[in-house]
Amino acid sequence: MKIYKLALNDIKKFLYSLDCDKSGIAIMSKKAKIHTLFIKDLHVGAANILKQDALSIGADLAVPEGVIVAKERYVNALLLGTTKHFEILSRKELAQPFGLKELAKNLKDFVKEQKFSTKIMGVLNANEDSFFKNSRFDNSNASQRIEKMIEDGANIIDIGAASSRPGSLPISCDEELNRVKDIVQTIYKNRFFEKVDFSIDSFSPKVIEYVLENGFKIVNDITGLQNDEVCSLVAKYKAQAVIMHMQNNQTNMQEKPYYEDIMLDIDDFFKQRVEKAKSFGIEDIVLDVGIGFGKTLEHNLKLLKNLEHFNHFGYPLLIGASRKSMIDMITKSAIEDRLSGTLAIHLEALKNGASIIRCHDVKEHFQAIRVFEAINEIN
């Protein structure tokens, strides 16, 4: 007998290769992954009930000392268990008091499998003040830049005409539209829509309506659908909406950003904006936690490490950290020298649940992602 430890990314695939019984595969695959769920402000009565119920099925709940004698009325706790454990608890706690019924309804969302194909969103900026100069272009070289991105492996091309870098000043809707019009017509004339999807990085209804009328399919809104008129347009054209989180606005977002709990605060934001989108009839949604948009380095790192949390919404997750200043905060580097750091962040984001990567360097990301996926496909 010989033994070695396996790192399995697709437990079902491996169990099939062992020729296991199909019903057994369904059961065993749910026992293979351990989940850790942080529960904040849990009623002490709920903590005691959940602790006993978890232990009875082989899971566990880490709680502070003094819970058994109800030292504090509300506590924080960590629920540990497999997918199977969470499914059992989601049924078991439905009849329990102290808010456990609500917890039970949410447990399954945190362990359901999400399968979205990986896409690369290339960035092109039709303005002169975007923070990375190599992403800037005008209509004279639009065709060549777009053709190169498609050749390099882009699935989506995101066109922006107004800078959203920290401290940038807004421009008029007419100015933004003037920067976009000729480029949109170039895209249309060259039939690039047949090769990739195009996204508009804008929150201006005037610009958004123009591009959607001319073949664009995605609205990448850094305000997270704040404007009702934008919501109406996205619904009218059945476009995909990228809901991004940003604290305050681009002019002041980096002035001492603060959160009670960044994970919960952004989760609440997404809940509200997804509900709003649905109320307008928008169903095709992507979520973006907004790396660098009103966040400190610590905020950004926490979001990246715990990105999988946001999978419970059931929508694709987009990450865009391309050449951003957080890399410079970790290791001093000019914008032009941050490709390595960008790739490290984006591959970690894919590992933690992202499926759309917004980047300036499409060719390098295509190669890195293909290698990353090849490693993770092996069982």
UniProtKB/TrEMBL annotation:
One GO cellular-component annotation of the UniProt record comes to: cytosol
Enzyme nomenclature, EC number? 2.5.1.15
Into which EC class is this enzyme placed? transferase
User: Is Metal-binding included in the keywords of this UniProt record?
Assistant: yes
Q: Which SUPFAM superfamilies does the record associate with it?
A: Dihydropteroate synthetase-like
The superkingdom listed in its UniProt entry is Bacteria
Report domain Pterin-binding positions.
Answer: 118-370
A biological process from GO: folic acid biosynthetic process
Keywords of this entry = Folate biosynthesis, Magnesium, Metal-binding, Transferase
> Which pathway or pathways does this protein act in?
Cofactor biosynthesis; tetrahydrofolate biosynthesis; 7,8-dihydrofolate from 2-amino-4-hydroxy-6-hydroxymethyl-7,8-dihydropteridine diphosphate and 4-aminobenzoate: step 1/2
A GO term for molecular function: metal ion binding
Provide the reaction this enzyme catalyses.
Answer: (7,8-dihydropterin-6-yl)methyl diphosphate + 4-aminobenzoate = 7,8-dihydropteroate + diphosphate
Q: Which cofactor does it need?
A: Mg(2+)
Protein name as it appears in the record: dihydropteroate synthase
